[in-house]
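Entry:
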Amino acid sequence: MPPNSMMRPSATSTADSSVDGSKPGLAVLALSRGGGELGRGLATELEGDFFACKGRLSEVFSQVWGQYSAIVCIMATGIIVRTIAPLLADKHRDPAIVVCDELGRFAISLISGHLGGANALARRVATATGGQAVLTTASDVLGKTALDLWCRDRDLIPIDKGSFTRAMGKLVDRGSLAIWSRFPLDDLPEDLVTVGKRSCADLVIDYRIEPDDQGALLVPRVLVMGVGCNRGTPESIITEAIRTTCARHALCPEAIVRLASIDLKQDEAGLLECAARLGLDIDFYDKDQLNQVANVAASEAVLRATGARGVAEPAALLSAGAGARLLVHKMKWGDVTTAVAAMADPSGRQGNQVNGRPL
């Protein structure tokens, strides 16, 4: 590669490709001539971008760090450690880093082995080079469940990183963990054992907060927040009403998977801004759909204004899908009304149903 192109990806570039099928971007970096030959081959094989970075490693790393989700480095491990030290944040944000010698004998998973996918990438690199993947994460070495991946695959959110890290340590040290869940759990790995008492659990799966929990709380995204509001209500007022609803009923805000409202609010700036602020989608329903939902609170004022007997309760139930139950009945917060519905199936993420039938 000509010197003036060392800061651009090679012709093997497929910048929109994915290392693990979900995250775009793999960069392959090399220093030496031999490393460059292997790097170009790997970039082609793994559908990534190649960077020759002799004499400019720090500059290249600063460029690719935020742009790529995975980086393969064909050079000494010590060089990489010293170079990336100022860039490291945490395993939830750092890219996967794999270090490989220029003969391709070893592919070392260095950073973000589980959540970032470095372990899987190291195996792919080793397969491509005919070498050996080197993994040092305890769960892989000991054959235990990788809890962070197990939670990610089930859309469970660890609320406290400290307690979750301690639980992972217990799994490695003791060989198993006790788990309590509000929902039925199928196909549990052998090292996760269900218990009948929440207080005895190392891991708790629930959308409710209990102050006496000893275990790490894992929150499933199974709640829908129904929202009604007067025209022109600011985002801050709507957001505060949602947060106060959760706090009043000991619900984890992280359990909310989406908002729901009447279609008359599709252009309501405050509601749309609230959803954007919370990182949530909104399901909208027309008055006829809302009026099909039985056993919900009715309001003459809402009926006159919208043609629907109610908004927050029926919208939440519709969005939560078949078998949903109303967890929090309508609450009035000045210009905002809220209600919360819980999905019947924690593995289901699709709402948009009326009385069990797709809309």
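Residues 1-23, 349-359 have pLDDT under 50 and may be disordered.
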